[in-house]
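# nightly structure sweep
# worker-07 picked up a monomer target from the shared queue
# config: single-sequence mode, recycle default, output format = structure tokens
# input follows
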Amino acid sequence: MAVDWNERIREAVERMEDEVRHAVDYVNDELVPEARVQSAEALRKAAQKLHELAQKLDERSQGR
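# output follows
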């Protein structure tokens, strides 16, 4: 009976490990690349806005 219990625990742990590996693969293969693309786009937009702000500040300081 103890063998059955130990075997069940071992099998359950193996299934959990497989599921965790699957989840990690999914995150790495599907979510991370898209997050990088979106992050890069957000940084480009922020850089453009900062460039526009710098131009406005330059224009104001030259207008004095």
